[in-house]
Design brief:
The protein is mainly β. It has one helix and seven strands, in the order βββββββα. The chain has one domain: Sandwich (Jelly Rolls). 8% of the residues lie in helices and 45% in strands. Strands 1, 2, 3, 4, 5, 6 and 7 form a seven-stranded antiparallel beta sheet that branches. It comes from Staphylococcus pseudintermedius.
């Protein structure tokens, strides 16, 4: 079984890739985070970016960023049909608390 991974990067860009069997969270400690998520360019200023299973993401610009990858099997205990669900970015209201906990 794969575990949770945390990567800390000072500056980060990537080519487009698809996220399989995991959820990725991007947290920028300097507030600079620009992603192309499923073909749509999005800016996440002092927000947590949620990348769901099967999403296509390209990191355009990220500074002082933490990338947290959580395998989907961690959610199977709480939701038996976890492959059919997703995490809604707009419903997340505790960006500051999450960022503080990660720091």
């Amino acid at each position: 079984m794969q575990g949770i991974t945390i990567e800390l990067m000072k500056q980060y860009t990537s080519s487009a890739y698809r996220v399989f069997n995991r959820i990725e969270l991007f947290v920028s400690f300097e507030g600079v985070l620009t992603l192309e998520l499923n073909g749509k360019k999005s800016h996440f200023y002092h927000q947590v970016a949620i990348i769901n299973h099967n999403d296509i993401v390209k990191v355009k610009d990220a500074q002082a960023v933490a990338k947290i990858s959580i395998p989907l099997h961690y959610f199977s205990e709480y939701q038996p049909h976890y492959l059919l669900g997703f995490f809604n970015q707009e419903k997340l209201s505790s960006h500051n608390i999450i960022t503080t906990q990660i720091k």
